[in-house]
Design goal:
elongated; 6 helices; transcription; 199 residues; 3 domains; Mediator of RNA polymerase II transcription subunit 8; transcription regulation; Mediatior_Med8_fun/met; Methane Monooxygenase Hydroxylase, Chain G, domain 1
């Protein structure tokens, strides 16, 4: 089972290497065009090159996330030997990009996160941008709140005016009803009620 798993891993990594080499070739071609043909380079050509690179990178990421791909995070890269002296075998393997694997370079080569200084600078930029956005939003929210408070106060004043008007009308009606003489005689009403019940 382990031999089969190792073979699947090797084939998967080989496929990823082929895709990565295709991306590198496309990048090299694009950089060559930018460097040597920048006078005749048109914007649609630049966009086509970016689209090609974007498609290849998306394809590589999709291949890495594929169910057929073994979980590469379970296979960490560990340097076998660290040396301050140049290594011709390593130079040949990396096609001249890495000449030695020393104690100072290895953390940078195997880093899976940005450099701490870069992370700090990124956090600071995000924080500054957040503060700018927050201040702008705070001002807009304050303006909205002030307009809502003004509208609420206006509505409250309208309701208060209606209540005052209704109360004034009620008082006027009460005063008017008190000033009118009664239209019946209470004593006569009592006599009529007593006659109806008792005869």
């Amino acid at each position: 089972h382990q031999a089969n798993e190792a073979k699947v891993l090797e084939m998967s990594v080989d496929a990823l290497i082929v895709r990565a080499k295709a991306i590198r070739k496309a990048l090299e071609d694009f950089l060559f065009k930018l460097t040597n043909e920048h006078q005749t380079l048109t914007w649609p050509t630049v966009l086509d090159n970016f689209a090609l690179l974007s498609g290849q990178i998306s394809s590589l990421l999709a291949a890495m996330k594929s169910e057929k791909m073994p979980a590469l995070r379970n296979y960490p890269i560990v340097p076998v030997r660290l040396s301050p002296d140049p290594d011709p075998h390593l130079l040949a393997l990396t096609e001249g990009r890495v000449s030695l694997m020393s104690h100072t370079e290895t953390p940078n080569y195997l880093r899976t996160k940005p450099d701490p200084a870069v992370e700090q600078a990124e956090r600071q930029l995000i924080s500054e941008e957040f503060n700018v956005i927050y201040r702008r939003l705070g001002t807009e929210i304050l303006t909205i709140q002030q307009s809502q408070v003004a509208m609420f106060n206006k509505q409250c004043n309208k309701v208060l005016e209606k209540v005052k008007t209704a109360r004034a009308n009620w008082r006027a009606d009460t005063v008017t009803s008190r000033s009118n003489p009664p239209t019946f005689n209470p004593k006569a009403t009592e006599e009529l009620v007593a006659a109806a019940y008792f005869g």
